[in-house]
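Structure (tokenized):
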């Protein structure tokens, strides 16, 4: 149900790969390069922002960085990594695990365990996942600020006593997906007054929030427009959703101690709130991903 594994990007991805790269460039802050690192990305803005964060951090440290952004879905990006066309991409722990294990259902809400299992699959391919960040882009459930205030809501557990008064809105698949309505029932004990089939974090869901026909809706945790829409994400305090923390997926031959230190330092400071802010700057304010990444790195003293 997340955008990170949607097959809708597949055709666009093949077109992008056929054209070699959808967006490319190189940079280095030193006349004597430590080596060349090629960074790939998925076909959505957040991935380009993260790729630029990785690349600009490495370039500042003296690496020559090439970019192959907007390649498409994981079905395009992962093979590009395995073949050496790219050296690293910004991944998502749980989604990458379920891709590399062919949907074996090993992912969980425990990011440490999920990343360890991911690495058990990656090492067979000469790849590895570095240290995950605290930043997550995963399915989440939101309420309006009015609903939050009325019922004093901060976390999904708070919905259990009042679920019978609320209507849940999400994509039509929600009643059968374990991480949607069935999970809210089995993990949290929430029984809603009704379910309204809309879309997955799309315009129908937003319109339903606005006209009051739903009180709880499925969104993505790093959406740029949630605050402007007056929506608040409730904490997944019992870890219903899998741990889709942002994590660099890299070729082991490229993961030197220096490269690993640089990327892990970046991950250590990155939060979901940072993602939301940067996504908004690109998607809503139409700023360029490279400029947004540079501003973030400067503001957080990565170039000091």
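Design, position by position:
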């Amino acid at each position: 149900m997340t955008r990170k594994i949607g097959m809708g990007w597949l055709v666009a991805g093949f077109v992008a790969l056929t054209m070699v790269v959808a967006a490319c460039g190189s940079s280095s802050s030193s006349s004597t390069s430590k080596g060349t690192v090629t960074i790939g990305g998925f076909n959505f803005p957040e991935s380009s922002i993260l790729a630029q964060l990785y690349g600009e951090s490495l370039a500042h440290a003296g690496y020559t960085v090439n970019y192959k952004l907007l390649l498409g879905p994981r079905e395009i990006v992962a093979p590009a990594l395995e073949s050496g066309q790219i050296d690293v991409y910004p991944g998502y722990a749980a989604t990458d695990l379920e891709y590399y294990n062919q949907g074996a259902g090993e992912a969980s809400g425990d990011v440490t365990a999920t990343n360890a299992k991911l690495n058990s699959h990656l090492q067979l391919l000469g790849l590895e996942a570095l240290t995950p960040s605290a930043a997550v882009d995963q399915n989440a459930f939101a309420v309006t600020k009015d609903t939050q205030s009325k019922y004093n809501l901060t976390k999904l557990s708070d919905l259990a006593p009042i679920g019978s008064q609320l209507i849940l809105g999400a994509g039509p698949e929600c009643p059968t997906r374990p991480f949607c309505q069935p999970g809210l029932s089995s993990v949290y004990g929430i029984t809603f007054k009704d379910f309204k089939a809309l879309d997955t974090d799309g315009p129908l869901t937003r319109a339903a929030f606005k006209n009051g026909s739903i009180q709880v809706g499925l969104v993505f945790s790093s959406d740029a427009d949630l605050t402007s829409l007056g929506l608040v994400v409730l904490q997944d305090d019992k870890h219903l959703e899998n741990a889709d923390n942002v994590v660099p997926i890299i070729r082991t031959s490229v993961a030197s101690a220096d490269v690993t230190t640089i990327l892990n330092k970046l991950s250590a400071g990155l939060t979901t709130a940072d993602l939301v802010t940067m996504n908004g700057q690109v998607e809503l304010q139409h700023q360029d991903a490279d400029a947004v990444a540079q501003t973030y790195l400067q503001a957080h003293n990565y170039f000091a």
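Reviewer-requested clarification: Residues 5-22 have pLDDT under 50 and may be disordered. DSSP finds eleven helices and eleven strands in the chain.
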